[in-house]
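name: query_chain
kind: protein
chains: 1
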Amino acid sequence: MNNLGNVYAKSGNLSQATEFYEQSLAITREIGDLQSEGQALGNLGGIYLDLKKPEKAIKYCEQQLAIARKIGNRYDESATLGNLGIAYRQLCNINRAIEFYEQRIEISHEIGDRQGEGRTLGNLGLAYENLGDPDRAIELYEQRLEIARKIDDAWGEAMTSFNMARILLDKNPIKAKQYAEFALQIFKKNRNQQKAHITELLINLIQFKL
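structure:
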């Protein structure tokens, strides 16, 4: 059922995916399969994050977190902490989101999940931007870029370069333009027209600052 839910989720049919995840959750609870129960809970939490329903996402993620800790699944524990951070950021509870992001970064580093560590450093940077602390955000984005380059995460490098360009717009427009132009190359290479268009608009705005 989880696999069927994944198929529908990838196709964008979130309502159908939710039905299969809920069926999977009921079955796994009935047979006492904690690992699969945790996966179903995590999938439901992810769906509600996509639907921008953070209260429901938190309900499922907290249950998944408890199971991950019970069975000693550090990877799922780390991922769920990250999702809880996203949920609280959607609720505009930035300080709470930061707590969860920092926990995820610590565990991701311990278990060698560089992808998860890097992605969450980016989310933490956004959280500090929300708090009005651009200098701290820049530090975190730089760490995110360092990891992205080491693991050949081109998309992560592009997204973070875009964020750096945006945040450096007034501070250092020359450097901002370099970051934006780099991000634009990757967005075009990936044929993401929406991201490319937004980045081109940012570059045009930077030009007025030079």
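note: The chain has a mean pLDDT of 94.
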